[in-house]
Amino acid sequence: MHRKYAGTGAFVMLAAVALGAFGAHVLEPQIGEKAIGTFETGVHYHMIHGIGMLLAAFASGLGGDRRRLLWANRLFLLGIILFSGSLYLLAVTGWKWFGPITPLGGVSFIAGWLMFALAMLRKDN
Which residue spans traverse the membrane (predicted)? Predict the structure, then answer.
């Protein structure tokens, strides 16, 4: 399981770096300073939780509760899609209705970190 999610985490990180470069070099002149700030927030959280995915994948090889670490990875990925994805779309399109989706991604991030913590703090680890 940890190899699959480590690979997925690596692709998530690749996408974060590519989107960050795209935002800085292509989008900024097109969408303006305020919107690029929104886009950069999406990239920031995307990257942090891509690293979280890698950490959870490696932690499963260190004796962490694999079931909870699997859920941590799933929740991190869902959070990236909902949180960062909604911010990317909001910045590029200006459609305000993407805004209410963002907190759902934040809740996914929080739940992912909770699963990660519980996986590593189990007494039988």
Answer: 47-63, 75-95, 101-121
Q: Are 72 and 119 in contact (CB under 8 A)?
A: yes
Which positions ≥6 away from 76 have C-beta within 8 Å? 49, 50, 52, 53, 56, 108, 109, 112
Give me the helix-helix angle, 33-60 and 102-121, nearest 10°. Answer: 20
pTM flag (> 0.70): yes
3-state per-residue secondary structure call for 31-91: HCHHHHHHHHHHHHHHHHHHHHHHHHHHHHCCCCCHHHHHHHHHHHHHHHHHHHHHHHHHH
- What is the model's pLDDT at position 80? 98
Domain boundaries, the chain: 2-121
Compute the average pLDDT of residues 99-111. 96
- Asked if 19 contacts 46 with a C-beta cutoff of 8 angstroms, the reply is yes
